[in-house]
Write a structure and sequence with these properties.
Elements: E1 2-9, E2 17-24, E3 29-38, E4 45-47, E5 51-58, E6 61-68, E7 73-79, E8 86-90, E9 95-100, E10 105-111, E11 117-124, E12 139-144, E13 150-154, E14 159-165, E15 171-178, E16 185-190, E17 196-201, E18 206-212, E19 218-225, E20 236-242, E21 248-254, E22 258-264, E23 270-277, E24 285-288, E25 294-298, E26 304-310, E27 317-325, E28 329-334
Antiparallel strand pairs: 1-2, 1-28, 2-3, 4-5, 5-6, 6-7, 8-9, 9-10, 10-11, 12-13, 13-14, 14-15, 16-17, 17-18, 18-19, 20-21, 21-22, 22-23, 24-25, 25-26, 26-27
């Protein structure tokens, strides 16, 4: 079956914006790369039922870009400074969330009946951490918990903060979890049962396994490295993904340039099963195909997408290809609506 796969990129060298391609879920082949929309540094993408939202810039200002299902621009919501680094959709409240790493802010946007976005709220983070990259707050993630709260990860303060959010986008802080000092909390992924969360920490190359009891309450039960024990050079973790059956978890390593494969044990803890080369340089993001037979990793510095065949019983990966060119790709995902 042919599916459409989308790529967010930097546009510092040769990329022009958001790209799409065909992906064959039977043989794992990529083909027909096309420019979907011109946009400056659309480094993260998210889809609703009829819109694509991306990190974006306009007239030298940064923020959010809002496209319809034909990738026609509806509007930008921007202000002075860099664009967002993470985007997520809250379909129930018709909200869109964004994390601004450089400005230390979490932003909440409201969509009106004409599909336009407006800025509804801005949350300023405060604090710092012991690592040299933690001189100030750096929100890197803003998304929903299984019980429909807004949860954020701040790489600069090692914090995971949860907010209650109204339909209009007003937010009230209700809980905070602190990762290990200097860990650099980056992204959070929840197990399908909603009772365990996995926090990938960029700066110390680890995953913290957290029991989740609801309403933003996290309790750590394990920390596990994403790297081989003998690796001592630079690394920064990237993306984290969990299979639909809740049996396997994957993390990308930038520097070591690899994908770490973990089995999820019955109690939610992780057991390392494989660390395999990502087949490129700087794998900032990856995703699983809709049937989860394949993993597709994109590389910021080698401009390629690599495809791995995935064993559904063991979770192990085998490289299939690495020669599909995608310029400056840093985000990859599938979407099931058809462009109209």
């Amino acid at each position: 079956m042919m599916e459409t796969i989308y790529f967010g990129t930097y546009t510092k060298r040769q990329s022009q914006g958001i790209y799409r391609a065909d992906f064959d879920t039977k043989d794992g082949s990529l083909s027909k790369l096309q420019l979907a929309a011109k946009e400056t540094n659309p480094t993260y993408l998210a889809f609703s039922d009829s819109n694509c939202y991306s990190a974006g810039s306009c007239n030298g200002m940064g923020g959010m870009a809002n496209f319809d299902s034909r990738f026609q621009l509806i509007n930008h919501v921007v202000e002075e400074g860099p664009a967002l680094c993470y985007v997520a959709v809250d379909k129930g409240r018709r909200l869109v969330y964004g994390a601004n790493y450089h400005k230390g802010e979490v932003l909440i946007y409201k969509q009106n009946n004409q599909e336009q976005l407006t800025l509804a709220n801005k949350i300023h983070h405060h604090g710092s951490g012991p690592h040299k990259n933690q001189a100030s707050p750096h929100p890197h993630f803003a998304d929903l918990t299984p019980d429909n709260y807004l949860v954020t990860c701040d790489l600069g303060t090692d914090s995971v903060t949860t907010y209650a959010v109204t339909d209009s986008g007003q937010a009230e802080k209700i809980a905070n979890y602190q990762a290990a000092p200097g860990a650099g909390s980056r992204h959070l992924a929840f197990h399908p049962d909603g009772k365990t969360a996995y926090l990938v920490c960029e700066l110390n190359a680890s995953v913290e396994v957290l029991n989740y009891s609801g309403q933003g309450k996290f309790e750590k039960q394990q920390t596990i490295s994403t790297l081989p024990a003998d690796y001592k050079d630079f690394n920064a973790c990237g993306a984290i993904r969990i299979t639909k059956d809740g049996r396997f978890l994957y993390v990308s390593n930038r520097g070591h340039d690899s994908i770490a494969v973990f089995a999820i044990l019955p109690d939610g803890r992780l057991e390392n099963r494989q660390i395999i080369s990502s087949a490129g340089q700087t794998p900032r993001d990856f995703c699983l195909s809709p049937n989860e037979d394949y993993l597709i990793a994109v590389h910021q510095d080698s401009d390629n997408a690599a495809v791995f065949r995935r064993d559904s019983k063991t979770g192990l990966l085998v490289e299939k290809s690495r020669d599909f060119t995608v310029p400056e790709a840093v985000c990859v995902l599938f979407n099931d609506w058809k462009e109209k």
